Amino acid sequence: MPDDPFPGLTGLPRLRAIMARLRDPETGCPWDIEQDFASIAPYTIEEAHEVADAIAREAWDELEGELGDLLLQVVYHAQMAEEAGHFDFDRVAQRIADKMVARHPHVFGDESRDKSAAQQTRDWEAVKAAERAARAETGVLDGVALGLPALTRAVKLQTRAARVGFDWPEAGDVLEKIAEEARELTEARDRLGVAEIAEEFGDLMFVMANLARHLGVDPEAALRSANAKFMRRFNAVEAALDARGKTPQDSDLAEMDALWEAAKRAERGG
Q: Name one GO molecular function term (predicted).
């Protein structure tokens, strides 16, 4: 391992100095020098998901490293912004600090802390609405980030619309809409082309996200959990086949389905 290039620095100052060196046009890393906001953005999203994954798995030993990877993304973007003359890391930190103070008058101001979580949420949304208005974002749906995961963005769009009364009254109405969209998807599959099928599938997914909102379910978290469950059960199928001296390629659907059901029963203690 090379000698520490910044022996007098620790923590965040050291990380920022390392990033500045990596981006140095004369002595930095060629790959890091070539990057820009657009090329780094996908890594930022990926690192955020890896943080969420470590939390979902309660992998606390991994979370430390994943948070570091995510922090690196903030430092990376701030370094590029400083080079371009937009802003620097200190301004990023100052801006979020100011925002937290402004959005918590019951902690840092004169407002009472004697509020329910629901009231605090309403107050928070009122402050955010004022901030959007100051940015000339006057539409109900303005400001919902395009870069969010599609399911999360769908819920945020629907939540905004619901605040002005554009919403189904209850979950049963959403379930009826799901049945309608499923029928339309079936018709598209039988009669229409790929583009129309994709559109109908998107409509169905959008309504599914709305059902999650009505049920108080985070659709991204629910799907991550379903993915993890699928992996556990399919791994169990592979293990059972291996015990028989086989691989999935040597098996067939009937055998694997029977092993899948056995894995389900085992999980449920049956």
A: ATP diphosphatase activity
